[in-house]
Design a protein that fits this description.
- It is a single chain.
- The protein is α/β, with parallel strands linked by helices.
- The protein is built from 17 helices and ten strands.
- Strand 1, helix 2 and strand 2 form a beta-alpha-beta unit.
- About 5% of the residues have low confidence.
Length: about 500
């Protein structure tokens, strides 16, 4: 689709087209007092939008007109490709400093997910399986909600806000259809309704640009805040399979194709082509191999690492017969602990790599706040009172993290839990239910009113009353059989 589109600059030429677009955007910008926000990822499309908006503010200032603040938001999921994340943070720092120097009201903000919504808290803490197309739990929590919270805040203060984004029709056929659909629904010329928020409208200044148009603009008009767009180009080129770039703009700046960057843990695709290409094309990025390996491990569909029960304890059948037809639940305790060890080992391996850039020497794949949250989930929600997380961190990352005693120190130390486990023998279900019941009783022991005690007991029994996996599956089959029989009888009863 990209190659079939004509350049947006063909009709008027490059410079007049940019001047016309800047004039139009400036006019729209001055129409009201509503705040404008640029969604900036550090990629080529958002970089082009940000540069255009800088030129708009420069024009307004030169005409001695009042300039309202321009917010620039970037969402750091905490699992971004480290090369891209470093680029973005460098760009934002330069942007902040240069805007202040030039007297332009441009305010960058780095957004992050709430601690309970980060990737590792959900995967290692709660046991969520690595995201897939059927259970895509990551995008909403880690990307959409942080920006939505910011937009809601500034919109509530002003009534409405404008979000500038680099979405283009030429990106894909689906994207083109989506843009045209929202164009038809638009109540204001040049603006579209936001997908999620009623008091936010979107402005797409480069929606009709081709991929080559974007690179032409970035390479003809240097970023005014000092970031080098040729370095951005090199990053895209390095992330393209084979390092190839289809269009040559000039002898030193070849344009690249649709290289995409995102979370290094992403399992929504079969293969992380951008990271693989970076490692293959650039020996200086060999330090990223542990990230690639861990990502590939996460992408393996190994049901043995997951509980046969769903998060709330029930067994879900995919078909009428056999274990293979059950839907696996969250990662088991053993698996979650192993994922943590693998993550910390990858972090250590990266840090000792001689090719690691100096500004990444202290790279942290998981931070203290996330580990504290995971620890609380394991202890208080999953009732895993052995409190093994600090021990794992000390073994795998000695001295890197520090942990305070839990507020509610457990009565069972590891020796007592060991005795309980030995007493239960090989019966994991008996050990689990015994440990959890004792822990709930202990939790309520000193309370005058034991509100919720029996509900917690009920939850434990619901999850752990099975003898084993086979018994759980058989119970689920019987339950389904009875439910199907009732469903068949109901129409007959209604007809009488």
């Amino acid at each position: 689709m990209e190659n079939s589109r004509k350049s947006f600059f063909n009709e008027l030429g490059f410079k007049p087209t940019i001047e016309k677009l800047v004039d139009l955007t400036a006019k729209l910008y001055l129409e009201d007092d509503n705040p404008w926000v640029v969604g900036y990822s550090g990629g080529k499309d958002s970089s082009a939008c940000l540069q255009l908006m800088w030129r708009v503010l420069e024009k307004i200032k030169s005409e001695n007109k009042a300039i309202k603040p321009l917010h620039v938001i970037t969402t750091d999921t905490l699992v971004e490709n480290p090369v891209v994340a470093t680029w973005v943070k460098t760009s934002l720092n330069l942007l902040r400093d240069k805007a202040k120097e030039k007297g332009l009201p441009i305010f960058p903000t780095l957004l992050t997910p709430n601690i309970e919504e980060t990737f590792w808290v959900n995967l290692i803490g709660k046991g969520y399986p690595a995201p897939n197309t059927k259970f895509r739990w990551c995008t909403e929590r880690m990307k959409i909600r942080p920006s939505d919270r910011f937009l809601r805040k500034i919109s509530s203060e002003s009534g409405e806000s404008v979000l500038v984004i680099g979405t283009r029709k030429a990106e894909s056929a689906n994207r083109a259809i989506s843009i045209r659909k929202f164009e038809k629904k638009a109540t204001r010329e040049n603006f579209q309704k936001h997908v999620n928020l009623v008091n936010v409208v979107s402005y797409l200044p480069i929606k009709d640009w081709t991929n080559d148009d974007v690179w032409l603009y970035l390479l003809q008009d240097a970023a005014p805040w000092g970031i080098n767009n040729k370095d951005l180009l090199s990053m895209y080129q390095g992330a393209t399979d084979g390092g190839e770039c289809p269009l040559v703009v000039d002898s030193s700046t070849p344009s690249c194709g649709d290289s995409r960057f995102g979370c290094w843990v992403c399992t929504l695709v079969k293969q992380d082509k951008s990271m693989s290409a970076m490692v293959q094309n650039d020996s200086e990025k060999s330090w990223m191999e542990p990230l690639l390996q861990l990502r590939n491990d996460l992408n393996e569909k190994d049901h043995s690492k997951r509980d046969f029960r769903r998060l709330k304890g029930f067994v879900k059948l995919m078909g009428p017969e056999g274990d293979e037809n059950t839907v696996p639940g969250p990662y088991t305790k053993t698996s979650r602990e192993e994922w943590l060890r693998k993550l910390l080992r990858a972090q250590k391996k990266i840090r000792i790599n001689e090719q690691l850039p100096k500004d990444l020497k202290k790279i942290q794949l998981i931070n203290q706040e996330e580990l504290d949250q995971i620890r609380k989930i394991w202890f208080y929600e999953k009732l895993e009172t052995d409190d093994v997380l600090p021990k794992i961190c000390e073994e795998e990352a000695k001295g890197e993290y520090n942990f305070e005693p839990l507020e509610d120190s457990h009565v069972f130390d590891r020796d007592i839990l060991k005795i309980l486990k030995e007493t239960c023998g090989d019966d994991e279900m008996i050990f689990e239910i015994s440990r959890n019941l004792l822990e709930v009783e202990r939790k309520h022991f000193k309370s005058n009113r034991r509100t919720g005690l029996f509900e917690e007991f009920e939850d434990i029994f619901r999850k752990s009353f099975y003898k084993d996996k086979t018994d759980a599956i058989e119970y689920a089959k019987q339950k389904k059989k009875i439910k199907d029989q009732i469903s068949k009888q109901l129409p007959l009863e209604n007809s009488q």
